[in-house]
Amino acid sequence: MIETGQVRATLENARALVKQGELVGVYPEGLRGVGKAFPERYRVLDFHPGFVQLAISTQTPIIPVATVGGDEIFPNFVNLKAVARLLKMPFFPITMGFPWLPFPLMFMPLPVRWLIHIHEPINLGYPPEKANDRKLVLKIAREIQYDIQRDLNKMLRERKSILTGWAPDKQEADRL
Asked: Do residues 62 and 124 make contact, with C-beta atoms less than 8 angstroms apart?
């Protein structure tokens, strides 16, 4: 049986899970990535370097993943920062459904096609003590961030439209 779950995003929790043999997914943009306004979609924000620190300290590979589709299922038109602060929330989005539609309709995603690109694993090859080298860790995090941004840009150029997805490649078109 396959199970999934989540834990508070701390380096200690991630280390414990890796030590137990678990696969750990990290979103290096953090909450900032979820709260981006619609015009900022697919602009990768600076990655927190903790995922690189984790990979070096635990001697585990990094498997970057780029997705197109997720930034459009709930278009965030405006982030009301003052309301968010008042409610002690990281952001307060105004979307097509929230806060206008009644519960649970306000949480219905738009029917957007997704493309997920799983990159080849990256084995960093540094000894565990290098996990505390902030300059190295930040450099690697930025390189991976730029690779993902390039991949997103390429996928977006290839996409026909938000709802119909991608044009089939030549081999796929021949099969159809």
From this structure: yes
d(CA 162, CA 23): 31
Tokens of 148: 């993902």
Q: What is the pLDDT of residues 61-74, one digit of tens each?
A: 999 999 998 888 88
pLDDT tens per residue across span 5-56: 888 888 999 999 999 999 999 988 887 888 888 888 899 999 999 999 999 9
Measure the CA–CA gap between 105 and 99, rounded to whole angstroms: 10
Note whether 35 and 78 are within 8 A (CB). Answer: no
3-class SS of residue 93: strand
Distance in angstroms (rounded) separating the CA atoms of residues 67 and 56? 25
Give the pTM. 0.82
Cβ count near 74 (within 10 Å): 19
| CA–CA dist 174, 169 (Å, integer) | 9
Contacts by 18-24, CB closer than 8 A, 24 or more apart: 18/54, 18/58, 18/60, 19/58, 24/54
